[in-house]
Amino acid sequence: MVRVTRQLAERIADLAQLLLDDDGSDGPLQQLTALALELIPGSAAAGVVVASDTSWAFTASAAAVGDLNRMQLHGRDGPVAEAIRYREARRIDDTGSEQRWPAVCAAIADAGFGSCLVLPLRTDRRPGGALVIYGRAADAFAGSGHDIALLFAAQGGVAIRNATAYRSCRQLVANLQAALEFRAVIEQAKGILVAEYGCHPEDAFKELSKLSQNTNRKVRDIAADLVEGRIDRSQFRPGADEA
Predict the structure, then answer these.
(1) What pTM does this model have?
(2) pLDDT tens, per residue, the chain with 243 residues
(3) CATH architecture of the domain with residue range 6-170
(4) Is 54 helix (H, G, I), strand (E, B) or coil?
(5) Is residue 62 within 8 Å of 44, Cβ to Cβ?
(6) How far is residue 211 from each of residues 76, 205, 208, 230, 236, measured CA to CA in Å?
(7) From 3.20.20.70, 1.25.40.10, 3.20.20.140, 1.10.10.10, which CATH number describes the 176-242 domain?
(8) How far is CA 232 from the centre of its chain?
(9) Please, are residues 47 and 184 in contact by the beta-carbon 8 Å criterion?
(10) What is the distance between the alpha carbons of residues 212 and 61, in angstroms, rounded to a whole number?
């Protein structure tokens, strides 16, 4: 019997915070996979799959796990495919006697695994994701080992949501910062034209937009060239169309 210690419970409870520290696109999935092997009794190999309606991504602790997951996702058959599709747990206690998914079970057995546990992860993506764990022996995830895996998967889903939200917020901040910088450059360029020709700021912006359309370049790039002196100011004639 697996003994659930306070230290184990705290490690699992801390998953969400641990996975916030990585900025890589698949960093949280890799960390979750490694921690599953460390913390879930009976696990010999593990992987994490996240899927949308049109694509999916996964990490795996071994090449065989990646091959098994890919087989099920492509064929839309097996415990991984069903756990993601129905958002329900799937467990194979003995790959030698399991009657469901015969082709998948044969492939799992050929890879050297006697049992498998797939638990859905509650992510923001649809249809969702799953934690996939393989054991060498049959019945590797019976009893309290299964309960620990359930707790791990629950916290793992929170971790992925948090990591996704964290990266999204950072990207939003970066986008806003870039927008402010572009706005500042455009305002500088408008100021140059206003000072040069004594025109209205709106007319200055129209000139920048006109050159942007004529050259098929973005206004911010035209503005940056003007500020840096890479464009001849004499080609601008703010207000000339109204004269």
Answers:
(1) 0.56
(2) 444 455 544 554 455 554 444 444 556 667 777 777 777 778 888 888 876 666 677 777 888 888 998 899 888 889 998 888 888 888 899 999 999 999 999 999 999 999 988 888 765 545 567 888 898 989 888 766 666 665 666 565 555 555 554 455 555 555 666 676 788 888 888 888 888 888 888 888 888 888 888 888 888 888 888 888 888 777 777 766 554
(3) 2-Layer Sandwich (3.30)
(4) coil
(5) no
(6) 53, 10, 5, 14, 9
(7) 1.10.10.10
(8) 45
(9) no
(10) 51
> What tokens appear for 174 in the block?
């970066």
Domain borders along the chain are 6-170, 176-242
CA-CA distance, 91 to 26, in Å (whole number)?
A: 26
* Residue count of the chain: 243
Give the H/E segment covering residue 197: helix 144-197
Residue 64 CA: distances (Å) to CA of 97, 172, 180, 187, 237? 21, 37, 48, 57, 67
Instruction: Report the alpha-carbon distance of residue 152 to residue 97 in Å, rounded.
Output: 27
